[in-house]
Each structure stands twice: as structure tokens, then as C-alpha cells.
């Protein structure tokens, strides 16, 4: 069995030594449980989807108090949000580092009562699907791009098995998981159709009214479903950068399916070769690059895109505070032509760094001081310096 060392493990080990509780958040099946059990061999494991474990928590305070000398891992904790108000006095009574490891598949902001209850007592950490830099010695970028970063899909013995796992994953989320995670009623057919539409418009500006007309529901309902997909770590809303008031700028977000394996599964693309005959390939590569950068960026760096009403566009802007520090154009060609629109954007934003990222090109600088490089080299050599 292939073992992948997750970059987040080192961060979590440090935080376990200082924080009484840490939360590992991310989509289902991304490896949260496996990682948590590797962090501390002396643990008590409770799964909130297991009736036997939930039965132990009928008197939650007394039971958890009795386990004060062990690390307690609570899986799918968002299914029992009332636990958070119980954990607060337990932690205040004994702030032993590494006392609780909480695993969740839903953003705390969307689960009532979670985000504010343990303020100052918990360290939140996102475990994303496997990053290119974590897998490069085992799989090349083409397999990673096509299959995505979920361990079971990425490490499957064939594309067929990988696709079958992704199809089951999508079906499970549509029919059961998403509604259960947030404790709401969601219409499976509507959710599936909406998710498919998002896949077909991957990387485009989001227009709730357009989706609502196509789906036959209100715009607020569309936005609500988008919130839940984003809160389940499945969708990314990339916001526009519009601090510059001198230009007429686009102010609608773009949406991306965060994992390209899920994207290709929703679009029923059976192989890497078939991806190259599909019109989604450009936005698939764009979303893939953005997600890899997000996973490895400095925590104080935010991601945006920039587009003027005149049509000038920068695929990705890395911002610290209110200062754009890097403009990035993402190209599928290994012999890219630097667009005039991108140069116009860099003149507007005046970033310190300008990059064009490709799949496999060599690294070189153009006459406009734009560095052209491949994705792996950007992630390993340039991103840490931004």
C-alpha cells in the first residue's frame, strides 16, 4: 500500500503541542481520519456516524471528562454540533495541549453554533486533496490532474477504477452526505443538476439568475446550494480584485470545481486522452493550477482574479493585505504567448512578481519581465518566495 506523507502533518504536530484542540477540516474521503490517527498513537476514536459511539455520548460531559489523559479524536463532529458547547468548559477546566482532535467535513461557518463556541481554544486546519508536490515521486502531473487528489481515486490501479470511485463519491454526496452534514433538506435531483451545470461552466463568472432560470428555482435557492457545495470543500468561489477604482471592473466571482477528478467525473470524461478532446480542458488546467497554488500558499496570502470591463484579464492575483504581490497567467501551451490583456493588468496592479505557468515549459524571463515556468517548478521554487 502506498503511503503519502502529508505536508499538513508537520503543522498539526506543532499545533498539538500548544493548542488544547485542533480541527482537521476537509471533504469526505480526503484522509482526515488516517492522518489524525497517525498524529498520536494513544487515542480514543469516536465516529459520530457510528451509533455505538454516539450512544457513549448520552452524558457527553462526564464521558469526555473521564478521558482527560488521552487524546480524543471525534470524527464527523459537525453531525453533533452540541458537542462544541460541552467541549468549551472541558477545555477551560484543563487546557492540556492535544486533548481533542476534531474532524469535520463541513465549514464551521455553515454549522450553527460551531465557529464562535471554541474561539481562542481551537486551531482550524484544512486538509485538502493530495497536492502535486506530495505525489510527484509516485505519479506524474498528468495522472494527478486527470484523477484529482482524493487518495482512492488518485491511487486506483486503473482509470476505470478511479472513475468508478469518483462516480460513487458524487452519488453519495448528492443523495446523502451534503444534506446530512449541514442538517438541511436538499433536493438530490436539483443538487446533481446544479453541480453538473457548475462543472460545464467551470472557471466562468457566476450568475445566480442564469442558473435559477435553467434550474427552475429562485436565485436565493441557487446561492444557498452554492454555499453548501463550497462549505463542503467541493467548490471554490474566486473573488475579483477591485480595489482599483479608476477602471470599470468585473465584480462577480468565478466558480471552480476544486478537485479536477470530480470535475472530470461530473463531465463523464473517461480518460486523460479524452480530456484533450473536450472543450473544458483549458478551464480544467486553470482550476487545477489555482487549487495547487491555494494548497501551498502562505496563510497570509489571498487569491483573486482581475478582469476589466474592457476585457483585460489576469487569471490569478496573489494579494497580501491590500497589496497585489504577484500576477499569474495560466496557459496550457508549453510555448505560451504573453497576452496584451495580461500585460495591461500588470500595469494596473504593479505587482512585484509576474508569472506565466504552463504544464512543462522551461523556466525563462520575457522582455516584459514575466517569468515563464512550469507548474511544479513554480510550486517548489517560486511560490515559497512570494
TrEMBL record:
User: What is the originating organism of this protein?
Assistant: Pedobacter cryotolerans
- Where is each AAA domain found? 20-135
Q: Please report the name of this protein according to its UniProt entry.
A: ATP-binding protein
What high-level taxonomic lineage is stated for the organism?
Bacteria, Pseudomonadati, Bacteroidota, Sphingobacteriia, Sphingobacteriales
Q: Which InterPro entries match?
A: AAA_14, DUF4143, P-loop_NTPase
Domain DUF4143 spans what residues? 175-333
Q: Gene3D superfamilies recorded for this chain? A: P-loop containing nucleotide triphosphate hydrolases (3.40.50.300)
GO MF term (any one)? ATP binding
The keyword Nucleotide-binding is annotated on this UniProt entry:
yes
Q: Keyword Chloroplast on this protein?
A: no
Amino acid at each position: 500500500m502506498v503511503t503519502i506523507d502529508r505536508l499538513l502533518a508537520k503543522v498539526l504536530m506543532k499545533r498539538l503541542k500548544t493548542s488544547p484542540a485542533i480541527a482537521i477540516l476537509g471533504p469526505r474521503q480526503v484522509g482526515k481520519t488516517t492522518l489524525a490517527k497517525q498524529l498520536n498513537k494513544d487515542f480514543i476514536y469516536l465516529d459520530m456516524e457510528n451509533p455505538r459511539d454516539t450512544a457513549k455520548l448520552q452524558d457527553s460531559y462526564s464521558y469526555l471528562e473521564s478521558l482527560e489523559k488521552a487524546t480524543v479524536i471525534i470524527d464527523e463532529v459537525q453531525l453533533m454540533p452540541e458537542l462544541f458547547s460541552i467541549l468549551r468548559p472541558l477545555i477551560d477546566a484543563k487546557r492540556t495541549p492535544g486533548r481533542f482532535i476534531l474532524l469535520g467535513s463541513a465549514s464551521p461557518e455553515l454549522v450553527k453554533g460551531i465557529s464562535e463556541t471554541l474561539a481562542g481554544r481551537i486551531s482550524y486546519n484544512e486538509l485538502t486533496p493530495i497536492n502535486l508536490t506530495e505525489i510527484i515521486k509516485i505519479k506524474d502531473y498528468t495522472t494527478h490532474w486527470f484523477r484529482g487528489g482524493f487518495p482512492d481515486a488518485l491511487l486506483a490501479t486503473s482509470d476505470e477504477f478511479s472513475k468508478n470511485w469518483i462516480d460513487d463519491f458524487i452519488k453519495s454526496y448528492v443523495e446523502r452526505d451534503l444534506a446530512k452534514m449541514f442538517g438541511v433538506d436538499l433536493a438530490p435531483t436539483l443538487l446533481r443538476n446544479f453541480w453538473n451545470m457548475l462543472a460545464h461552466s467551470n472557471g466562468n463568472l457566476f450568475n445566480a439568475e442564469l442558473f435559477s432560470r435553467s434550474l427552475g428555482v429562485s436565485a436565493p435557492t441557487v446561492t444557498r446550494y452554492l454555499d453548501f457545495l463550497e462549505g463542503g470543500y467541493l467548490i471554490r468561489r474566486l473573488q475579483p480584485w477591485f480595489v482599483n477604482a479608476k477602471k470599470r471592473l468585473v465584480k462577480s466571482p468565478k466558480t471552480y470545481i476544486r478537485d479536477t477528478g470530480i470535475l472530470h467525473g461530473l463531465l463523464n470524461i473517461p480518460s486523460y486522452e479524452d480530456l484533450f478532446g473536450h472543450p473544458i480542458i483549458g478551464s480544467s488546467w486553470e482550476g487545477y493550477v489555482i487549487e495547487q497554488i491555494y494548497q501551498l500558499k502562505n496563510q497570509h496570502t489571498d487569491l483573486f482574479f482581475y478582469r476589466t470591463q474592457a476585457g483585460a484579464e489576469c487569471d490569478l492575483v496573489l494579494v497580501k493585505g491590500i497589496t497585489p504581490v504577484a500576477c499569474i497567467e495560466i496557459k496550457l501551451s508549453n510555448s505560451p504567448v504573453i497576452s496584451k490583456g495580461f500585460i495591461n493588468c500588470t500595469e494596473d496592479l504593479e505587482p512585484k512578481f509576474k508569472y506565466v505557468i504552463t504544464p512543462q515549459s522551461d523556466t525563462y524571463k520575457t522582455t516584459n519581465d514575466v517569468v515563464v515556468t512550469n507548474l511544479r517548478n513554480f510550486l517548489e521554487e517560486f511560490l515559497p518566495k512570494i
